[in-house]
Structures are given as structure tokens and as C-alpha cells.
Amino acid sequence: xxxxxxxxxxxxxxxxxxxxxxxxxxxxxxxxxxxxxxxxxxxxxxxxxxxxxxxxxxxxxxxxxxxxxxxxxxxxxxxxxxxxxxxxxxxxxxxxxxxxxxxxxxxxxxxxxxxxxxxxxxxxxxxxxxxxxxxxxxxxxxxxxxxxxxxxxxxxxxxxxxxxxxxxxxxxxxxxxxxxxxxxxxxxxxxxxxxxxxxxxxxxxxxxxxxxxxxxxxxxxxxxxxxxxxxxxxxxxxxxxxxxxxxxxxxxxxxxxxxxxxxxxxxxxxxxxxxxxxxxxxxxxxxxxxxxxxxxxxxxxxxxxxxxxxxxxxxxxxxxxxxxxxxxxxxxxxxxxxxxxxxxxxxxxxxxxxxxxxxxxxxxxxxx
Amino acid sequence: xxxxxxxxxxxxxxxxxxxxxxxxxxxxxxxxxxxxxxxxxxxxxxxxxxxxxxxxxxxxxxxxxxxxxxxxxxxxxxxxxxxxxxxxxxxxxxxxxxxxxxxxxxxxxxxxxxxxxxxxxxxxxxxxxxxxxxxxxxxxxxxxxxxxxxxxxxxxxxxxxxxxxxxxxxxxxxxxxxxxxxxxxxxxxxxxxxxxxxxxxxxxxxxxxxxxxxxxxxxxxxxxxxxxxxxxxxxxxxxxxxxxxxxxxxxxxxxxxxxxxxxxxxxxxxxxxxxxxxxxxxxxxxxxxxxxxxxxxxxxxxxxxxxxxxxxxxxxxxxxxxxxxxxxxxxxxxxx
Lengths: 368, 336
Hints:
The structure holds 2 protein chains of 2 kinds.
Chain A: H1 3-20, E1 33-38, E2 45-48, H2 53-63, E3 67-75, E4 87-90, E5 92-97, E6 110-114, E7 132-136, H3 140-161, E8 168-172, E9 177-182, H4 185-188, H5 192-203, E10 214-215, E11 218-219, H6 229-239, H7 245-255, H8 257-271, H9 277-281, E12 286-288, E13 302-303, H10 312-315, E14 323-330, E15 334-336, E16 339-341, E17 344-352, H11 353-361, E18 365-367
Antiparallel strand pairs in A: 1-2, 1-3, 3-4, 3-12, 5-9, 6-7, 8-9, 8-13, 10-11, 14-17, 14-18, 15-16
Chain B: H1 6-11, H2 18-24, H3 29-34, H4 39-55, H5 71-86, H6 89-113, H7 117-131, E1 136-138, E2 141-145, H8 146-153, E3 167-169, E4 172-175, H9 177-183, H10 185-198, H11 209-220, H12 234-244, H13 251-263, H14 268-271, H15 283-293, H16 308-313
Antiparallel strand pairs in B: 1-2, 2-4, 3-4
Helix pairs in contact in B: 4-5, 4-6, 5-11, 6-9, 6-10
């Protein structure tokens, strides 16, 4: 990012944190978390301990970071090196990212940027660099598919794991997915391995055919549609209706154990929630702070209490709409605030600041 | 700690407060060691250790009412005295494990066949004292909270214990009496081991020396012989093959390969060439990261190779039959 772009983004961030500081979710024990941030073209700065909201505000206004992070964990000494922080507990966090859903639409709204020269889709790039960055722009199908995964995850957390709705918070990540934060005290002291078991549960990894009543010597008691947990989910998916169940059971029995195991593996991918397992199991990670700007898009990581109605490309766009001129190279059109932008083929355009920031954060435009 | 009757103490003698129990019955250690009338206690104490550690059989208490003496509690206390005096660490571990297995049987029976609420309540309280785990009865099952289950079940490696393979509803995991008790086995073992470790080593009393000498001899037979194989575990081999084919290996895969090789004693310079064919190879970044993992930069922590369970979650596990029984790639090919 060049210095002119950097200056423009800093202005946007100054205005944003001045006007919207109030929407940042500040945890009650802020001084027990590790705080970190990253400015454009700079390395991550972390292992910071902030005492209170006032110190957070002054840090944001002074530093104008593009990305702001806070640990999910609480420590006795958040500012010391990792081995000396003395971990106390950590919120349970799930990350659902559209890029992990292997959606067919993905290539149609993704461009490749050379990490060395910044050229898009190999046009005019002579670097022969092996480092190519995939950059994706707005897509309703991706967001809707991510919402479905959120719904799947929440159903499992509420119905099976017993987590209360009042103890979960769903956030739009600010770019391409959703973060689900669980504050239930009973789960905060789970270690990484224990969290990985929960991950396998919600993703439906490693389920045995025997759990669904299928034995090597034949089907004995396949689940009912009304059963709780995974057996019920499989039954509803495999049988569809109570009347179809006997016929399906006959077929499953005839196909045998090995075939059933294969079906189970396939169905697990469909029925399990698609989450990033590394995020949930990492109890030392610093996460984007809710209410701050996502430096990959210029949109806000935002709470969405009613996810069905939430439109990230409108509700999370809080950068102002003052017109600015940028040189844009974005061969794919995108939509923000219900307006269509692009495609832009290396041309100077007057667009609202939020769209300019969106493109600049993705490396697809420069300030003229 | 709940107050237990004689019948419960015979089944769970480790719940007795040894320091109080001997004087309560009017005995001293010297009497236990030398009194001819108490030879039955000495014999039982020695056999308790011998049977459990040598034959692998689970110790069975004598039928109720066969003697006026509280034989089970006294023999357990004396067994601890003998183990402490012999400083037989391997025997102590085995003894604690086998005593726990014995107690498991009683707990399971008391939970499953407890006919009165009082019996079940007493067993529930014993389990609370041992493992600080709240269990309650729901129809024919016992239920425990998901986090309580996870704290314990992650230590088990059979796939049946994975949360996904349990009945889970509204935050509760449903278990039968056998599974409930199996879940707290390690805590039972720890409880008994702690009881032994925290007991003071009493002065050697004449009358016990012979038994102590025999235990020292038995203990010496437990020194393990370990042999290592040169073959890499399949997860590591897969990572090496991926890189040598010039394919991309995930961050987690690179972490696994590097930490495995470091733990095997390779140095950073020997490990770096493994990453040479990676599509994004950069020598200085690779060396920086390897030095970091080796604890030569940053916070000086050397990172350990992750467990099989973690690798499985990260889709890095390519287990073969040779992996059976191991919990970490570092254990691959180790023969005892």
C-alpha cells in the first residue's frame, strides 16, 4: 500500500473510531486480555495490556490501526511473552469462512494478485513470483451459505451441547464469514485438546456406524427421526419421512456395513458445521475485536443478533460516502450499500469512500 | 469428605484417613508389624501388593464378617507402609492402578445395582469426593455435563469415547454405570497414588524388613527396555513426500514436520532442506521459523510435536496399522 493510500485510509479510520467507538464490544476484564494491532505495511504489534476503554480509545486514535485484535484468552500477565502470560481461561470461538465452503461461485468472484508487484490476474506481471494471493469480492451466495453453516452450528450448540442463546454472540467477521463467540463459563477453561473434541462434534468428524445402530453383522436399531443429536439428524436426512424409513432401512441393510460407512463419511460433511478447526482449538489466538474495522475489506466486524435479516454489505459498511477518485483494477463487479460497482479495468473512477476503502484494502485500487 | 460405614470402607479403603484409623482401632504400627495375632493383616497386606502387581489380577476383599478385624482397611494401610519403605515406584504405580480397578468394580456395581436412593446417593458422593464430578440419574443412564466429560474423555483413545460417539442432549452426556466409572479411572488412580505419595514414610519397624526386601526385588524387575525404529510415522512421511513433490504443505503440516524432526534431535540446518521444494520457499524465513520452533529465538520455548488427536483434527493423520496404540508421532516405532 503506497503512502497516499495509507493517508486516505488513516483519515477514514480516524473518522470511524471517532464516530463509532461506542459500538466496539469491550470485555469487562479488558486488562486481562492481550491486545494487538497492525498498521498498513507494518508488522503486527501484540502483547499489549490495556487498562480500560479510555486507553483503548487513545490507542486507536493515535495509532489508527487497520486491524485490531484482542485475545480470546484472559491472562494474569497479558503483556509478558506467551510462555509467561499465565493463561486463565478463554472464550470459545468458532469461525465460519466462506472460502472454506468450496462453493462453485468462488472462482467467479475471485481475482489473483501477484504478491510482489500487485498486478491483477497476471496482467502485465513479469515477476514470475510463486506467491499469488487470492482476493475475493462480495457475493450473496457465499454469505447465504455461511449463514446456513452458522444456523447448523448454533442448532448443535444449543440442542446438544446445552449452550444458552443468551451466552452466544454472532458477529459478521467484516469480510467473508462469521465468528461465533461463546461466553458460557462452563466452557471457558477447556484446553486445546478438549476444544478439538468439540470441533469434531460440531463438524461430525469421526462418527462410528455403531453410533447409528449399524453393526458389522447388520443393521439392528437405526435411529428414529425424533431422536436427539446426531442420530436424529442422520435419520431426518437419510429417511426424510417416517413412512420412508422402513424402505430405506431395508436398503441400508442390504448394502452392508462398508457401504454405510462410506455414506456416513459423505453425509458427515453435509450435516456437520463447516468451521475452521484451528481457530477454535487455538487458546492463545488474538481475534479481530468486535466493532473494529477489518483491514481486508474496510467493513466492520459487527454483531448480528438477527442473522437471517443481516445484510453485511450494507449493515457492516460504516465508512462514510464522501466521493473520492481512485484508479481501480477490479475485473469483477461487486455490491456495497445496495449499489453495484465495477467492473473496473484500470480506470480512474469517482466512488464513495467506503467503496474506495474496500478496493484499497483488497489491493484493487489506488488513490489518484 | 463423607463419613463411610465399615462396609463401604472395606470396598474403598483408600477413603479412610489412615492417620486416624490405626489409633481408632487401638493399634500401633509396631503392633501391626510384630503382633502374632495380626499376622493375618501382614500376610494380606503383602499379598495385596503381590497379587495386584505380579499377576495383574484385581484384588478381591474377603467376604464380609469373616473376622472381627477391619482387615481390608488395615491391610491397605499396611500395604502403603510397605510400599513407602521399599520406595518401589513401579510397584506403587501398579498397585494404585490395580486398587483403582478393584474400586471401579464396586462403584459400577453400586451405581448399577443400587436399589435404594441412599445407596446411589452414597456412590454419587464417593464419586464427587474422588473426582469432583457431579453425576445424576436419568432413566437408566447417568448423565454428566459436557465439559466434565471432555476433561476426562480426551485422555482416552478409543473412538467410542469421542463426544461424537456418545448420546449428547441439552448439555449432558449419557453413560451407563460401567462408562461412568471408567471415565474417572485416572482420577481414582491419582487419588490412590496421591494418598501413597502424601503418606509419611514411617521408620523401619522390625518384622516388616523381610517383606520390604522382597518388594525391592520385585520392583527391580520392572525396568523397561526401549528400542527405536528408523522409520518415520505415516503423517510425517506424507508431509515429507508432499514437499519433495513440490506440492504445498499447510502451515499445520509444516509445524508438525519441523517439531517432529526437532524432537528427533535434528538441528535447524538439517531440517531446512526438507522445505526447499515448497512453492513459497524462502530460505531466511524458513530458518527464522525453524529457529523459533527450536526455541533459539522469541521466548526460547522449544515446541513439542503435537499429539495424534490434534493431527487428526487438522486432517494431517494418515494412520496405518503400525500406528496402533500410539498417541503421539514420537511414539511411532518405539518398542518396549
